Each structure stands twice: as structure tokens, then as C-alpha cells.
């Protein structure tokens, strides 16, 4: 009788849906090289190791956990057939195809098949928009078909009272992970951000408990706090489960169906369910498919005037160097937790880098390393394509550029900030307002057809003002605002 092949579970494949049955032997690998190339957030490194080790403990005698310098060293000499579910990055897939005796299985953890997406994209003749894909996918997979379209609701201007998620309780595995990372740091491995306690799920049980809590207690308020920023409340009514989905702890389709049931049972309003499902079944699926559909690199990375390196204060998550309250609060959240919700990422972090012409690839790499949910397939499209508008409008039709008055409308950070959101020049000029005008002036020939940007600059385009703003922002340069 032929031996059953080992199922190699990668660090982003640690959920139960990556196994076929309860008997197959499982291989898990800790490769030190994964943490050595570029400084990774300490909490992301902890989460990766904790998830692998917890999964090995759950599987018991079925699992073999190999610790090695590289993945190739771990696989060399195994002497038995091995298979792996399609990796989530091109680099990992290319490596897998060079390993003798390693079989690559189809992808899991996504609803839409890649061939199905490619056929849809071919019919679109290059015009690929998330909204169009989302409508197609909902009809194709019968998602939210009988749920009424959400009515427009005003944003909540006061904090929404939602209970905190179930706490993460660290155990002996986490304690050993922390000791190992401390030792690695002493040996020269570099990390960014601050150490735990662990805030994100490392097991399927923890992730499922968080998802159940979100669907019951936080989903009803999700639409009310969507697209808002609140000083001191960095989670609002979000689930903060992106790392659990991206690490494979949760399968998105059951979560989508559970949200549908919440709407049908009257446990959550349609507006909230539509928002949640749109993010999980719309944007997440769309970004995954775009990553594999397009060539290995997004073309047009120099389309906008974006050639500046990341400043050191930003790369090191030095929130204490920043006076602008919105940026200081969001950057401190990344430093302390390795996470921020999507509005903070786009409107505060990405918007600031876009205005200053930071290199899109550098910023995407920063998001990958600094966020616990960071992955190539997510950050290439959302940062390079959507946030930094460097892919010739493949992901979005306009750059996510906003001035300080927009930040003021959606947040409470501007109250008490030394900068004034409506001021572009002078000592109290908001770096987002001055930065927005400078960004538009530098790229005006490329962006002249964008009606939103043109309207936002109306009355602020006389030559003297333009020259003063450009001179001011050039002088600011890479200094922390």
C-alpha cells in the first residue's frame, strides 16, 4: 500500500479546511530565513510561530514540526511524498515548483475559482472593477440575492457602545515563542514594533470565537462606524479578523453565510451585512484574483511622481516623533498592535505616503512587514494599485488623496491638534492639506481629468499659492509632521 503523502501546511494554511481528513500526516516548518530578510513586526513574527506551534500541538502525533534555517533544508532528505495547497505568493509558488517530489494542489480559502475569474476578466476586456466583479460573484454563488439593498445611514458621530471581543489568553506555547524571539533578537534578527501580549487569534478556536462574537455583538453596529476614525478606539465595530482569514484560520464562505443568516433573522441590519460581505467576498476575493491574473509586477509603478524612499521615522513606527494627531494615533496603533482598520490605512497612512511621493513598492513592503495580516497578494493590489494609484487604474479609478478637511469630517483627531485642517500654508498648515495640494500640482497633467480632485482644488490654484505650497512641502521633506 502506498504511503499517504505528507500535507505541508504553510503558516497561512493552519485552519481545518486545509486538510482533507483526520488521518493524513501533516508537516509544518519553521524556517528562520523567513524572519531574517527584512525587519518584521514583532507581533507578526510571534503570531506566525504561535499559529504553527499551536497547530502542531492540536494535531499531536499526526504532525511533524521541523525547525530549520530554510524551507529547502527542511524538505531535503524527507524521502517521502509531500503535497502542499497552492501557496499565497508567487515567490512561494516558484519555490514549491523547484522541490522534487512536491505536489502543488489547487488553492483553498477563496470562493471564486481562478479559471472562473479569468473567464470573467476576459469578457470584461481589461475593464476590471471590484463592483462589477462583486455583482457577478454574488449572482454566481447566490450571495445576498434576497437581501434588500442597504439604505443610506448617517455616520455615527458619537462612539458606538459595543462589547470588547473575547480576550486572547496566552499559554506555554506563547511563552516559549517569546523566549525564542528574544533570543533571536539577541543574535541579530531585527524586529519592528512592540512586543505583545498576543492580540490576534493563533488557533481556529480563538478565531471562531472572535467571529461568533463579531456576528452577534459588533456586526449590528458595523455600518455605523464604517469609514470613521476615533481617537483612542482603533477597532470601533470592526471584526479585526483579517489576520485570521489571511492565515487560513477561518474559511470565508461559512462566515459569509453566517452573516447572511444574521440579516435574515433580524440580528443585524442589511446595511451592516452588505458592508461586511462586500469586504470579505468583494474586495478580498477581487484582490486575490488580480494578484494571480496580472503579470508578476504591477506595471506603471512610476506613473505618478513617486520616487522618494520611506523616511526612517515612518519605517521604524516612531509615532512619538509625529505631532499630527491622526497620523500619530494610527502609527502608534500599528506599533503597538500590528493592525489598523482599512480607513486608517487608506486615509491616514497611504494618503500621507501618496502625497509625498513615496515609492509604492517600498510602502507595500512596509505594510507587509508591519501588519499581522500583511501578505503579497493583499498589499500589492491595495497599496500599489489602490492606495498609491501606481498601476494605471487597474484596481481603482482614482487616487485615494484627501486633504485635512476630509480627515476632520470622519474623525475626532483634529480637535486639539496643533495643525488646522483647512489651512495649507504657514506654521499651522495641516500636513494633509498642504500635502494634498502639492500632490495635485506635481501630478496635475496626469490627474486633470479627475473631477473630484479638480473640485477639491477649486479656488486654490493661483500661481503664487501653488509655488508657496510646493516650496513649503519640499522643505518639510521627510521630516515627521
Automatic annotation (TrEMBL):
The molecular function GO annotations come to: lyase activity
Alphabetical list of Gene3D superfamilies matching this protein: 1.25.40.80, Deoxyribodipyrimidine photolyase-related, DNA Cyclobutane Dipyrimidine Photolyase, subunit A, domain 3, HUPs
Domain of life (superkingdom): Bacteria
State the residue spans of region: Disordered: 152-171, 458-481
Q: Where is the composition biased (Basic and acidic residues)?
A: 459-481
InterPro entries documented for this protein: Crypto/Photolyase_FAD-like_sf (IPR036134), PhrB-like (IPR007357), Rossmann-like_a/b/a_fold (IPR014729), UV-DNA_repair_photolyase (IPR052551)
Sorted alphabetically, the keyword list is: Lyase
Q: Identify this protein by name.
A: Deoxyribodipyrimidine photolyase-related protein
User: What taxonomic lineage is listed for the species of origin?
Assistant: Bacteria, Bacillati, Actinomycetota, Actinomycetes, Micromonosporales
Amino acid at each position: 500500500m502506498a504511503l499517504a503523502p505528507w500535507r505541508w501546511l504553510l503558516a497561512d494554511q493552519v485552519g481545518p479546511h486545509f486538510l482533507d481528513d483526520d488521518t493524513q500526516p501533516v508537516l509544518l516548518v519553521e524556517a528562520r530565513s523567513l524572519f531574517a530578510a527584512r525587519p518584521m513586526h514583532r507581533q507578526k513574527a510571534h503570531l506566525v510561530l504561535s499559529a504553527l506551534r499551536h497547530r502542531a500541538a492540536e494535531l499531536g502525533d499526526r504532525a511533524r514540526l521541523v525547525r530549520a534555517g530554510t524551507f529547502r533544508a527542511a524538505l531535503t532528505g524527507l524521502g517521502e511524498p509531500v503535497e502542499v495547497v497552492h501557496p499565497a505568493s508567487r515567490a512561494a509558488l516558484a519555490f514549491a515548483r523547484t522541490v522534487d517530489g512536491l505536489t502543488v494542489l489547487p488553492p483553498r480559502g477563496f470562493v471564486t475559482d481562478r479559471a472562473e475569474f479569468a473567464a470573467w476578466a476576459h469578457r470584461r476586456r481589461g475593464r476590471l472593477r471590484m463592483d462589477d466583479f462583486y455583482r457577478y460573484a454574488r449572482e454566481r454563488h447566490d450571495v445576498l440575492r434576497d437581501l434588500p439593498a442597504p439604505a443610506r445611514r448617517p455616520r455615527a458621530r458619537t462612539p458606538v457602545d459595543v462589547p470588547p471581543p473575547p480576550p486572547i489568553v496566552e499559554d506555554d506555547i506563547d511563552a516559549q515563542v517569546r523566549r525564542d524571539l528574544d533570543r533571536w533578537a539577541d543574535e541579530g534578527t531585527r524586529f519592528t514594533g512592540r512586543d505583545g501580549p498576543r492580540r490576534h487569534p493563533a488557533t481556529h478556536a480563538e478565531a471562531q470565537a472572535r467571529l461568533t462574537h463579531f456576528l452577534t455583538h459588533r456586526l449590528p453596529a458595523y455600518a455605523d462606524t464604517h469609514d470613521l476614525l476615533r481617537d483612542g478606539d482603533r477597532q470601533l465595530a470592526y471584526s479585526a479578523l483579517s489576520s485570521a482569514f489571511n492565515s487560513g484560520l477561518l474559511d470565508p464562505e461559512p462566515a459569509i453565510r453566517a452573516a447572511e443568516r444574521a440579516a435574515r433573522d433580524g440580528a443585524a441590519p442589511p446595511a451592516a451585512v452588505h458592508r461586511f460581505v462586500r469586504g470579505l467576498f468583494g474586495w478580498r476575493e477581487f484582490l486575490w484574483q488580480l494578484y494571480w491574473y496580472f503579470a508578476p509586477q504591477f506595471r506603471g509603478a512610476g506613473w505618478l511622481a513617486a520616487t522618494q524612499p520611506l523616511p526612517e521615522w515612518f519605517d521604524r513606527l516612531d509615532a512619538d516623533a509625529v505631532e499630527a494627531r491622526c497620523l500619530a494615533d494610527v502609527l502608534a496603533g500599528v506599533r503597538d498592535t500590528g493592525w489598523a482598520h482599512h480607513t486608517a490605512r487608506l486615509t491616514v497612512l497611504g494618503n500621507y505616503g501618496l502625497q509625498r511621493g513615496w515609492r509604492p513598492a517600498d510602502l507595500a513592503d512596509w505594510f507587509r512587514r508591519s501588519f499581522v495580516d500583511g501578505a503579497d497578494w493583499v498589499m500589492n493590489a491595495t497599496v500599489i494599485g489602490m492606495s498609491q494609484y501606481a498601476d494605471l487604474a487597474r484596481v481603482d479609478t482614482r487616487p485615494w488623496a484627501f486633504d485635512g478637511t476630509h480627515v476632520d469630517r470622519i474623525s475626532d483627531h483634529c480637535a486639539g491638534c496643533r495643525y488646522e485642517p483647512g489651512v495649507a500654508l504657514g506654521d499651522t498648515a495641516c500636513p494633509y492639506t498642504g500635502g494634498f495640494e502639492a500632490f495635485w500640482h506635481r501630478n496635475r497633467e496626469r490627474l486633470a481629468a479627475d473631477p473630484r480632485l479638480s473640485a477639491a482644488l477649486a479656488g486654490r490654484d493661483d500661481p503664487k499659492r501653488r509655488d508657496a505650497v510646493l516650496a513649503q512641502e519640499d522643505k518639510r521633506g521627510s521630516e515627521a509632521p
